[in-house]
Amino acid sequence: MKTLTISQTRPLWVTSDWHLFHENILKHDKRPFSTVEEMNQKIFENLSIIQAGSILLYGGDFVWGKKEMKYNFACEAKKKIEDMGIEVKFFRGNHDNSLAKYGFVFENNAVDEGVIIEYGDLKFFFVHKLTINSVVKYSQKGIHYFFHGHNHGNKHRDEEKELYDPLNFSETLLKECNGVMPMVCDVSCNIWDYKAVRVLDLLKISSAFHNSAFSKDV
Ligand SMILES: [Fe+2]
């Protein structure tokens, strides 16, 4: 398992699933844009909240398109982010495989293979597709924060439903997680108003949600 250590002197942000140039995502996610150009523009305008010198962890599904054109779109978009003084680290999404073939660099090798991020005293798991297996495995290693993309705010997709609903989180699963309820947060851009989120803010929000959601059951 790869660990990425990031200096606390660098502001750290996360985002995911922009799906730049992806026409159908407007409909699937009910995104409030008439065209993909309008969506792309808004996403890039919103990067202005990130100060130069920051690091942005990007959680997968970056651009849409065919083969080389897709790769060129991705390189242009990456350069645009870097030109704003932001260092971006890409994690592979299920729609990014062809980018990897053309040489686009990712921090991980598979959509459900995450990386442990060490940021000062904080450790968290970052991945595109979060699975119960990863949550159990890394909970047992003392990791209790899990930030991911892929779900686009759909909290009842496949096996992940247990991670979001205390009624589905069984006693057995809790025991497997060393008795600590994991704090799980979807950072897909469509549920964050098409903005990246600062990790320290996300911690405050996740903790507040966690405390209110689970206080009655655990
Ligand atoms: Fe996606």
Q: Can you lay out the helices and strands and say which pair or pack?
A:
Layout: E1 3-6, E2 12-15, H1 23-28, H2 36-45, E3 55-58, H3 67-83, E4 87-90, H4 97-101, E5 115-119, E6 122-127, H5 132-139, E7 145-148, H6 161-164, H7 171-176, E8 183-186, E9 197-198, H8 199-214
Parallel strand pairs: 1-5, 2-3, 3-4, 6-7, 7-8
Antiparallel strand pairs: 2-9, 5-6
Keywords:
Purple Acid Phosphatase, chain A, domain 2; globular; disordered C terminus; 218 residues; single chain; alpha/beta; 9 strands; five-stranded mixed beta sheet; binds fe (ii) ion; four-stranded mixed beta sheet
Task: Describe the fold and architecture.
It is a single chain. With 218 residues, the protein is α/β, with parallel strands linked by helices. It has a single domain (3-209), classed as Metallo-dependent phosphatases (Purple Acid Phosphatase, chain A, domain 2). The chain is 33% helix and 17% strand. It is built from 8 helices and 9 strands. The chain has a 5-stranded mixed beta sheet with strand order 1-5-6-7-8, with helices on one face. A 4-stranded mixed beta sheet has the order 4-3-2-9. The longest helix is centred in the middle third of the chain and has 17 residues, at 67-83. 34% of the residues are buried. Mean pLDDT is 91; it is low at 213-218. Bound molecules: fe (ii) ion.
